[in-house]
Design brief:
Elements: E1 2-6, H1 17-26, H2 28-37, H3 39-46, H4 52-64, H5 69-82, H6 90-101, E2 105-113, H7 114-124, E3 127-131, E4 133-134, E5 141-142, H8 150-159, E6 167-172, H9 178-182, E7 186-189
Parallel strand pairs: 1-2, 1-6, 2-3, 6-7
Antiparallel strand pairs: 4-5
Helix pairs in contact: 1-2, 3-4, 5-7
């Protein structure tokens, strides 16, 4: 048995899906004003005063915290169906299909929002370990830790018994993928650029 782990943003996709979703669903003007409003959050993150998860939680809460649940779901489904298929790198998709044709277990492991990628992953028959949005609380926020760095490795180890796989492949493109890549026998960094 073989396992293939893929980051999504920048590895499979040509764009950061969270920011692209914000820009498309909130409008570029509101996205820009929100970015300016969130500068203290970015500074706090860069100074290591808050975690990556806390920063992402602040971003999601700022842009979507006051949205009606139905409107958020509708916007996310629109993005998932209309945008996600258009931002996939052909080389990455070919590699995923190669793994599937070889009978390998394939998973996308990403900090992107699960609601944006679940249809695409389900359509290919691959697993998805992503950041979940809380749609049950009074405001829209994150219901899991942001699937980034150490959280990627943690989620992978919770989902799979790694010693059961003869070979583990991992594909990433950023510092946020380092812990995932460290789990693999075969590591591929920025191989689809």
């Amino acid at each position: 048995m073989h396992l293939a782990l893929f980051d999504f943003d920048g590895t499979i996709s040509t764009k950061d899906t969270t920011w692209d979703f914000i820009s498309q669903s909130c409008g570029k003007r509101r996205a820009l004003y929100g970015f300016i409003h969130l500068i203290p959050t970015y500074i706090s993150y860069n100074l290591k005063r808050i975690t990556h998860h806390e920063g992402k939680q602040a971003v999601i809460k700022h842009y979507f915290g006051d949205w009606e649940k139905e409107a958020f779901i509708e916007a996310a489904q629109h993005y998932a169906q209309s945008v996600v298929p258009t931002i996939i790198r052909p080389e990455a998709l070919n590699r995923i299909r190669w793994h599937l044709n070889m009978g390998h277990t394939v998973a996308v492991v990403t900090g992107s929002l699960e609601i944006l990628l679940s249809d695409w992953c389900t359509g290919l028959g691959i697993d998805l370990l992503a950041t979940r949005v809380d749609l049950d609380s009074a405001y829209i926020g994150l219901s899991t830790h942001n699937c980034f760095k150490e959280e990627k490795a943690k989620r992978i180890q919770e989902k799979y018994v790694l010693k059961n796989f003869e070979i583990i492949y991992a594909y990433g493109d950023s510092n946020g993928d380092r812990e995932m890549l460290a789990l693999a026998d075969k590591q591929y960094y920025k191989c689809f650029d």
